[in-house]
């Protein structure tokens, strides 16, 4: 069942965070649904601008509709990740998305406000909720690329004004994470002091953490052992997710970790089965491995076991 992120956030706020997972193909979608049913978790399907053009937005939407029929017990939102203004309008008009993200964080504060407000007005008229971003995460994710020099933490003093002027439904904040597999070096970690100050400015308002893959070192090691070359990759400590949830984070974006699972499964499988040329055996392995990954991640988020309570809350 497709619902809005707003309803999911109302249930989750202060207790747990909901996993927002990027998908690109049928294998990811099946594994995603299986993993969330296995862990009894509500979830958010994230579709990026790149995913919409990888095969076709029509095909991707059709796959999700089919999965919704195959797994009728699932409760999830369909969300546009890192949309520009025109892509947001396209998703709003499609009638399929329950949530869109307008990323105008590279603009000045006033331009970000103006752009976000236009998207919010268009989305709310259709019953669709909107996420925006204030501050800038470093790193690279598809068409989003921000150097370390340009990355900046969200200013808590500006959050209340931004939310008030835009009427946005949730806000992605920069608290030290970054896109991609190379988030931290040394002992760097999340800026919980900044997050606490933001929550103080907008109590009860849903916050979002982008770039929150944990980049498991065992996955990196197995990829490298099977011929990969990921050196120095390090992500967010997923044991910190629940602390972030207590400070108002209701949605945590995870993309890179899923790509690492895909890479590890395929590298190991073809190394062990050099004679294979059939995509289906490896596809079956990946779907199960991805489902296990999703279920384990939901335990860290605190969303595991929440599905029945969410269903009652929505009734």
Automatic annotation (TrEMBL):
Q: Which CDD domains does UniProt cross-reference here?
A: TBP_aldolase_IIB (cd00947)
Amino-acid biosynthesis among keywords: no
Which residues are listed for Zn(2+) 1 binding in this entry?
A: 82, 179, 210
Which metal ions or organic cofactors does this protein require, according to UniProt? Zn(2+)
Q: Which superkingdom, per the lineage?
A: Bacteria
Positions binding dihydroxyacetone phosphate in this chain are 180, 211-213, 253-256
| Stored InterPro entries | Aldolase_TIM, Class_II_FBP_aldolase, FBA_II
Query: What does the UniProt cofactor note say?
Result: Binds 2 Zn(2+) ions per subunit. One is catalytic and the other provides a structural contribution.
Can you say what this protein is called?
Answer: Ketose-bisphosphate aldolase
- Organism field: Flexilinea flocculi
